[in-house]
Amino acid sequence: MNAGNASNYTKEQIDGMKDPSTIKISGGTKKKKSTLQNYRNSAGKKAYMSYPIARSMRENTGDTLRIKCVEYIAMDEATDGSFMGVKLNDAVIKLNNKDGTVDRVANTTKNREKYQEFSKEKFQKPEFEASFTDANTRIKNNTKTKYNIELPMPQEVNDSNQVTWGDDKMNAIQLAGLAIAKDIMEEGPANAIQKSQQAIRAMMSGVKLPDIGTETTNAVRAALAGAAVGALGGNVSADSVIARSTGQILNSNLELLFQGVNLRTFPYSITFSPRSTDEALVVKAIIRSLKQSMSPKAGNYNGSAQGIFLQSPDLFQLEYLKDGAPHPFLNKFKLAALTGMSVNYTNSGTYSSYEDGTPVNLRMDLTFKEINPIYHEDYLPFNGADEGVGF
Predict the structure, then answer these.
(1) pLDDT (tens digit, 9 = 90+) per residue, 73-126?
(2) Rounded-to-integer distance, Cα 212 and Cα 215, Å
(3) CA proximity to 348, closest of 336, 335, 361, 330
(4) Across the chain, which distance is largest between two alpha carbons, in Å?
(5) φ, ψ at 158 (rounded to 5°)
(6) Smallest Cα–Cα separation from 343: which of 270, 265, 292, 282?
(7) How buried is 28 (Cβ within 10 angstroms: 0-12 exposed, 13-18 middle, 19+ buried)?
(8) Is 372's pLDDT higher than 90?
(9) In this structure, are strands 325-326 and 315-322 parallel, antiparallel, or unpaired?
(10) I need a labelling partner for 275 at 20 to 30 A (CA). Which of 7, 78, 182, 233 fits?
(11) Spatial separation of the C-alpha atoms in residues 217 and 168, rounded to whole Å
(12) How many CA atoms lie within 13 A of 261 on its CB side?
């Protein structure tokens, strides 16, 4: 390859030509000696598979979808005492005995007060730290690319961002219970059931509900304490007691609250119509590579999975391209898992194949699901979505 033609290739294609361990699978304007028969996906060698092979005179590919396969990298075991990015400092109180042994007790308010006089150190309250690194960032910072696949732009190109909001209710009596419970939370999980019962008793003894008579107030207390039992043994709710006696109900303070994030899914359907032996080999390599990469790794294998554990399948970085460069308009992607794949070898409605057995027309359906959700900060400059519509 001379310097005059370098601008006609993508960076991955150029790197593939320089790296002797890389096998390039793509086409050009001139007839080239095929290296497809040397392709060995199981050997872990990188490849650039491009369909269709034929290009225009300037090697412009138009709008395409690139699928980069990367190795899944698990979270490293921390050496600072944290676990999965979470660390609890001063969770226990260490007491040094005269014989050199050390006793450890839970760091609660009661224990701090009890053992403070025996220790020269001032006991600190437990401190919670969280420093999460999501899988998308972790793997992108240590990318191990296996191969690239460039396909024609699918006919259905869309993205859908969703978050979960839900109705939430909390009445005044429930808020009063929380107000009492928060005063005893510093004692930690020890005797949690007993403490909860104390909170209920405190709320039930002497509480006066405004604008409601004494008899109804007593009935509400009984209902909240679980003491009011119906004819069939069912608990009577506070709402039903108040509604029957006064025609009122507790204000539920209904509000729509944010409840969580959702992961995006991208389904694609790609049609293959191989027109030559080389192109048939490319299609075969693409299908085989995706099937292999989406499958879990057994480790010890002798006709079946022999190991205790299964390793995670590979992940994929999707990207829309325009003439080999990032697309200036369409959405970006986070790393995704290939959760579903199906191949229809009779896409033309009837089975028909070439002399070498390659089906005349195939359809490959892929379903990718991102491994991390999209956040507000992902749209900020230099966070991966500087151009176009963002994620």
Answers:
(1) 887 765 555 666 677 677 777 777 777 787 777 777 777 766 766 666 677 777
(2) 8
(3) 361
(4) 96
(5) -155, 165
(6) 270
(7) middle
(8) yes
(9) antiparallel
(10) 7
(11) 25
(12) 9
**Structure tokens given for 8:** 């006609």
Global pTM reads: 0.72
Question: Facing residues of 257 across strands?
Answer: 166
Name the amino acid, one letter, at 201. Answer: R
Give the pLDDT confidence score for residue 218 in this predicted structure: 64
Residue 343 burial by Cβ neighbours in a 10 Å radius (0-12, 13-18, 19+):
middle
CB 75 within 8 A of CB 45: no
Tokens, residue 36? 């497809």
Check: CB of residue 25 under 8 Å from CB of residue 36: yes
Backbone angles phi, psi at 176, to 5 degrees: -65, -40
Q: Quote the tokens at residue 348.
A: 């033309």
Task: Phi first, then psi: give them for residue 228, nearest 5 degrees.
Answer: -85, 115
HEC secondary structure over the chain: CCHHHHHHCCHHHHHHHHCCCCEEECCCCCCCCCCHHHCCHHHCCCEEEECCCCCCCCCCCCEEEEEEEECCCCCCCCCCCCECCEEEECCEEEEECCCCCEEEEECCHHHHHHHHHHCCCCCCCCEEEECCCCHHHHHHCCCCEEEEEEEECCCCCCCCCCEEEEEECCCHHHHHHHHHHHHHHHHCCCCHHHHHHHHHHHHHCCCCCCCCCHHHHHHHHHHHHCCCECCCCCECCHHHHHHHHHCCCCCCCCEEEEEEECCCEEEEEEEECCCCHHHHHHHHHHHHHHHHHCCCECCCECCCECCCCCECCCEEEEEEEECCEECCCCCCCCCEEEEEEEEECCCCCCCCECCCCCECCEEEEEEEEECCCCCHHHHCCCCCCCCCCCC
What is the separation of C-alpha 315 from the centre of its chain, rounded to a whole number of angstroms?
Answer: 12
Q: What percent of the chain has pLDDT over 90?
A: 32
Q: Which of 230, 187, 222, 231 is nearest to 203 (CA)?
A: 222
- Spatial distance between the Cα atoms of 263 and 366, rounded to a whole number of angstroms: 16
